[in-house]
Design brief:
Shape: elongated
Number of strands: 6
Strand content: 25-35%
CATH class of the largest domain: Alpha Beta
Oligomer: single chain
Radius of gyration: 19 Å
Distance between the termini: 55 Å
Strand order of the largest sheet: 3-4-5-6
Number of domains: 2
Largest sheet: 4 strands, antiparallel
CATH architecture of the largest domain: 2-Layer Sandwich
């Protein structure tokens, strides 16, 4: 039996050959080596509902923005998987079904969100990215 290991990204990090060496196992192992380092999507069904995580924010306007994001996306079944707080920017990672979207929201010194930057290479669905951007409008 082959063992395939992956990390939290999720990216395949290693493949281990079976301990019993069969004629075909070397050929299959060579083919499987091509997927090491590749990202993959875990399929979720409609019944796989993820609970919404809770996040704490150091400033009230960041909490207010987060509450706006949650209330706007809740009816669409879009979950906030993670929020990474940086200076002048909040990085949001969203999940809907088996798709992910990573979007940076920039704010200024007046505590106003001013720019939305989708991170396309780290997103698995441009449609989800566009949907989120359309729903979360910066005033």
């Amino acid at each position: 039996m082959f063992k395939i290991y992956y990390n939290a990204k999720p990216v395949i990090s290693n493949i281990q050959k079976p301990s019993i060496n069969l004629n075909w196992s070397d050929l299959l192992y060579d083919k499987l080596q091509t997927i090491i380092g590749k990202a993959f999507v875990l399929e979720r069904t409609e019944n796989d509902t993820l609970p919404q995580k809770e996040f704490k924010f150091p400033k009230q306007f960041l909490q207010d923005f987060h509450n706006h994001v949650l209330s706007t996306l809740q009816t669409e079944g879009i979950i906030v998987e993670n929020v990474i707080q940086n200076q002048w920017m909040q990085k949001y990672i969203f999940i809907q079904g088996s798709y992910t979207a990573e979007i940076d929201f920039y704010y200024n010194g007046k505590k106003q969100f001013s720019r939305i930057v989708p991170i396309i290479p780290k997103s698995t669905s441009i449609e989800l990215v566009n949907k989120i951007i359309e729903l979360i409008q910066i005033k």
